[in-house]
Amino acid sequence: MQGANKITQFEFPYSFYDIYMHNKIRMQQNKQPLTIALSYRRMVLLNRYYKITKFYSFLKDTAIKGGIGIFAVVLILVGLEYFVLDFNVLLNHFVANYSPKAIYSFFFVSETFLGLVPPEIFIAWTSKSAAPWLFLFILATMSYLGGIASYFIGNRLFMVPYLRNYIENKVNHHIKNLKKWGGLFVVMGAVSPIPHSMVSMASGLIKYSFKQYLLWSLFRYARFLIYGLVIFQIF
Q1: What is the pLDDT of residue 146?
Q2: Helix axes 55-83, 87-97, angle to 10 degrees
Q3: H-helix or E-strand containing 108?
Q4: Among 229, 183, 235, which Cα is nearest to 70's?
Q5: Which residues have a Cβ under 8 Å from the Cβ of 125 and sit 6 or more positions away?
Q6: What is the spatial distance between Cα 105 and Cα 152, in angstroms, rounded to a whole number?
Q7: Residue 206, φ and ψ in degrees, nearest 5
Q8: Would the CA dihedral through 28, 30, 33, 38 be positive or negative?
Q9: Hey, is 100 helix, strand or coil?
Q10: Cβ(213)–Cβ(151) under 8 Å?
Q11: CB–CB of 149/23 below 8 Å?
Q12: What was the pLDDT predicted at 187?
């Protein structure tokens, strides 16, 4: 019996748990190269897809238009400041005569319905407030919430055939791009001259994932930060 016990101990020096963990580690080690290979292949396929759908060309054109847009806005504001009217006096007039709540409410409506007024004007207004960066953050939040309102407007319009067809014709180009590029196009609408409210409405119209929309739309804050850094230097 003692000899049998010795043989048993010699043949099984490890517990079943040790053997299980050893095999698990080996499987993970073998799986890692496969995971890397699959990730690389996925990146290659995505890159090919973006080339076929001309996303990179669209991105380049949008970046150029965005740069020209920022330059044009700054040039116009500076030109008006020097040759037409004193923007500092005008902005101070708004600060003194209109409550922040009234301006934020008006901006929210503007951002909800197709961006009626350029946000740069409101960003310039925040530069004259008591706490410019706080006011800018609130302004960006109003724009973000306005986009959410546009999403739900588009989502509800889906239920009314006549309005749905009318809006689809208006934002058809954005719908096509949204179906091709998904969240990337939402980001483009958040940071570029592409109207954020129209992209948001198109997202609701085709029932794009609301959680994904909320996530990618956070890039709206980046646009306000960049514009704020530029416009605050002027005013």
Answers
A1: 95
A2: 90
A3: helix 100-112
A4: 229
A5: 91, 94, 95, 103, 135
A6: 18
A7: -95, 10
A8: negative
A9: helix
A10: yes
A11: no
A12: 92
pLDDT given for residue 10 in this prediction: 42
Residue 160: alpha-carbon gap to chain centroid:
28
Q: What is the pLDDT of residue 58?
A: 82
C-alpha closest to that of 195 among 92, 94, 117, 142:
117
pTM of the model: 0.73
Alpha-carbon gap, residue 205 to 230, rounded angstroms: 34
- Joined together, the tokens standing for residue 189 give 């609408």
Strand blocks (E) in 42-177: none
Q: What angle do CA 43, 49, 51 make, to 5 degrees?
A: 105
Whole-angstrom distance, CA of residue 194 vs CA of residue 188: 7
Radius of gyration for the chain, computed over Cα atoms and rounded to the nearest angstrom: 28
DSSP letter assigned to residue 54 = T
CA-wise closest residue to 143 among 124, 125, 168, 117: 117
Check residue 192 and report its DSSP letter: S
Which residue, chain included where needed, has tokens 């847009």? Answer: 69
Mean pLDDT for back-to-back runs of 10 residues, the chain (235 residues): 45 47 56 60 80 84 78 73 65 73 91 81 86 94 95 82 75 86 90 87 90 95 91 75
CB contact at 8 A, 199 and 178: yes
Evaluated on CA atoms 36, 39, 45, 47, the torsion sign reads negative
CA-wise closest residue to 108 among 131, 140, 135: 140
Residue 206 and residue 10: Cα distance in Å, rounded?
67
Q: State both tokens at 19.
A: 């053997």
Torsions phi, psi for 167 (to 5 deg): -70, -40
Which residue reads 């005008």 in tokens? 90
CA diameter of the chain: 108
